[in-house]
Amino acid sequence: MAGMTAPEREVLTYELFGTAVRDLATEIVDSGFEPDIVLAIARGGLGLAMGLGYALDVKNLSAVNVEFYTGVGERLDVPIMLPPTPSAVDLSGLRVLIADDVADTGKTLEHVRAYCADHVAETRIAVIYEKPWTVVPPDYAWRQTDKWVDFPWSSEPTLR
């Protein structure tokens, strides 16, 4: 494979992740938005949600697990929420900050925002990376990129 270069990637380190959390939290505070709850999209949004929870002094954190339903050898275009899902009653009237690592297609964010929409006072979205083609532009994004992103938690092989 001489002469072939790997496609350029966006590399997020744990140190840069800390910077991203702080920068996003500052942007959220400066915008005047005061969330009552930070709703993480698991798994990628869990770290960001925790960091924002501490930085914004929001103790109410929750998570939703969303996957694109896959049949045999196929990936459908419809994301589904896996149980347990937060009760709509628990979210009623709250200002919700949805946190995820990346807005790529945006379909997961769209699904979660729609789930919240009828019950909550307001929903805003924070992500570390925003891709130009996302169907849901986030309210807060640390960086825009069209490259593949290597996240520090998923760029190493698993240990089992």
TrEMBL record:
Keyword list, A-Z: Glycosyltransferase, Transferase
Transmembrane residue ranges: none
State any single GO MF term: glycosyltransferase activity
InterPro entries in the record: PRTase-like, PRTase_dom
Q: Which residues form the Phosphoribosyltransferase domain?
A: 14-154
Gene3D superfamilies linked to this entry: 3.40.50.2020
One Pfam family from the record: Pribosyltran
Write down the PANTHER family for this protein, in alphabetical order.
HYPOXANTHINE PHOSPHORIBOSYLTRANSFERASE, HYPOXANTHINE-GUANINE PHOSPHORIBOSYLTRANSFERASE
What is the protein's given name? Phosphoribosyltransferase
